[in-house]
TrEMBL record:
Family listed: Belongs to the AHA1 family.
SUPFAM superfamilies: Bet v1-like
Domain of life from the UniProt record: Eukaryota
Keywords: Stress response
Organism: Geodia barretti
InterPro entries (alphabetical): ASHA1/2-like_C, START-like_dom_sf
Signal peptide extent: none
Stretches of the chain forming a coiled coil according to its record: none
Protein name: Activator of 90 kDa heat shock protein ATPase homolog 1
Domain Activator of Hsp90 ATPase homologue 1/2-like C-terminal: start-end pairs: 22-136
Length: 143
């Protein structure tokens, strides 16, 4: 399923859950502040985290538009990888829940072209989640 006017693309969805040793407020800010995203991705980043705002990550490899922002609980945005078929966008929904000792992130990434689903999932893990934990220390348990 793809945007009207383009060739049909077989798609799938990715669902991931990740825990970060921080508050949901801090994690939300990390995901929606241009300087922080540029820091953990170590790349050129442009983003305007507001409804209708555009973003570009990883030196333009990923781009899209924010559809819904409910600070600090939810982010919904379109997502397009540069190599995908023309005008094909997926949808990313991120929900943040505060647990006793961590922020729990639940990711649902829908309308992902089947041929790149595993690579996209690995990208989320290595370029986003692991980098946030490493750069900001959100992977360490605080005693």
């Amino acid at each position: 399923m793809s945007v009207a006017g383009t060739v049909n693309v077989n798609t799938t969805q990715i669902k991931m859950t990740e825990s970060f040793m921080t508050s949901i407020e801090e994690l939300y800010n990390t995901l929606t502040t241009q300087q922080l995203v540029a820091t953990f991705t170590n790349s050129s980043t442009k983003l305007e985290a507001k409804k209708g705002g555009l973003y570009s990550l990883l030196d333009g490899l990923i781009s899209g538009q924010y559809m819904e922002l409910e600070k600090p609980h939810k982010i919904v945005k379109t997502w397009r990888e540069k190599s995908w078929p023309d005008a094909h966008y997926s949808t990313v929904t991120i929900e943040l829940n505060q647990e006793q000792d961590c922020a729990k992130l639940v990711l649902l990434h829908t309308n992902v072209p089947e041929g790149v689903a595993e690579r996209t999932k690995l990208g989320w893990k290595t370029h986003i989640f692991e980098r946030i934990k490493s750069v900001f220390g959100y992977g360490a348990r605080l005693f």
